[in-house]
Design goal:
Elements lengths: L2 H35 L6 H5 L4 H13 L6 H21 L1
């Protein structure tokens, strides 16, 4: 195997790992949103998949603001984390 083929293989693995990790991140944000909406699980995919990642982050941040049972510090940390995810998405795009 040539050096070029090894470099290509490493790049493809890294890209695959990023895609996998990003999809897990996206699912986690969708789950946070869905858990706060308290809707029937039947509609999870229909509702959450209609949002692109940027809109998903914006909607989830808005919903987090309305959660009454968590402390302000936790809300702020969650909103900052989602903001970082949104920034990551801007780089990805």
């Amino acid at each position: 195997m040539s050096e070029r083929e090894i470099d290509d293989e490493e790049a493809y693995r890294a890209i695959g790992q990023f895609v996998f990790d990003f999809s897990q991140l996206e699912f986690t944000i969708r789950y946070i949103l869905w858990s706060q909406l308290k809707a029937d699980d039947t509609y999870f995919t229909a509702v959450t998949s209609s949002l692109d990642f940027a809109k998903l982050c914006a909607v989830t941040t808005s919903i987090v603001d309305q959660i009454l049972h968590i402390e302000q510090e936790t809300k702020a940390a969650l909103k900052a984390l989602i903001s970082d995810c949104h920034k990551l998405n801007a780089i990805r795009v």
